[in-house]
Amino acid sequence: MKVIALSGRDDIAVVYIGRMRDERFVEFVESIQPPIPRKKKWVLIVSSLFGCPIGCSFCDAGISYKGKLSKEEIFAQIDFPIRKRFPDGNVPVEKFKVQFARVGEPSLNPEVIEVLSELPSRYNAPGLLPCVSTIAPSGSDAFFDKLLDVRKNVYRDKNFQLQFSIHTTDEELRNKLIPVKKWDFEKISDYGEVFFEEGYRKITLNFALGQDTPIEPSILLKYFDPEKFLIKITPINPTYKALKNKISSFVDSKNNGRLEILIDKLKNAGYEVIKSIGILEENNIGSNCGQYIQTHLAANENLKDGYTYTVKNFE
To answer: Which of 163, 74, 155, 81 is nearest to 121 (CA)?
Structure first.
């Protein structure tokens, strides 16, 4: 891989664009969370695919799909920032999160399993926390069977995070937001019951919340045990796709306290709730979930509140 461009700043987040085989390009991110220093928390967000075939209605990464990354191509995205910050390969960070969530549904690439299997032995990183973020597409059962095996063996005594991005409890709306066949709530729940063990991290149910997107605690309780699942609420970040589909974020300053009311309802139902709102400057950098620098570079218009940084090219 050759890094040919970047957008961002070291004290918040940097998006890298790398050129791989056959003139295919990949994006990956490193970020920190001010005022938390890098030695306390450092996050790498890597891609699993060249583009994405899913086509979620608020994600810019679905404009093209050119195949799966190899194991070493995924590792290249992890090696680059590590060697940049820690040339000796030792990562003395208390929480070093490697998240499979930039571009591509990870369960569509079996090589992700190989990377997860080798991660703990490849780096001296006591704070390692891998995170797999997935929509659980239909036909991915073999991936999840192997993921369970990796979790039970390679990460039995180590941190690991599994996140299902479901976005709403309204199944019809969920199918519009994620327009492919996917596991229903019952199947996600059944898998979670097997995946979770006492002492493990709870499984995350992620909701990127748009305006008028329902989350009904009664529906969640029907399937997801609060002792094993937690709720994470994130914004709909500024993307060209969200603008085209007229999807605006519920997580903003204009909701007049409705978000807090929703969070209280979820907590009263017994759920742990994480409100995950990053630094707004990350929207300008283009490092947040759903954003994709290459879509911005191909666009003939500017996007309000997003992608405002100049992309620095090295060629």
So the answer is: 155
Phi-psi group of 35: left, alpha or beta (phi > 0 → left; psi -120 to 50 → alpha; rest → beta): alpha
Q: What angle do CA 294, 247, 207 make, to 5 degrees?
A: 90
First and final C-alpha spacing in the chain:
14
Q: What is the H or E stretch that residue 133 is in?
A: strand 128-134
**What residue has token string 């790398």?**
18
Domain spans, the chain = 2-313
Distance CA 92, CA 41 (A): 10
Q: pLDDT (tens digit, 9 = 90+) per residue, 211-257? A: 989 999 999 999 999 999 999 999 999 999 999 999 999 887 677 68
CA pseudo-torsion sign 282, 283, 287, 288: positive
> Which CA distances in Å does 26 have to 6, 21, 22, 135, 232?
11, 10, 12, 20, 27
Phi, psi of 11 (to 5 degrees): -85, 5
Q: Which fold, 2-313?
A: TIM Barrel (3.20.20)
The DSSP result for 45-110, as a single string, is: EE-SEEE-SS--TT-GGGG-EEEEPPHHHHHHHHHHHHHHH-TTSB---SEEEEEE-SSS-GGG-T
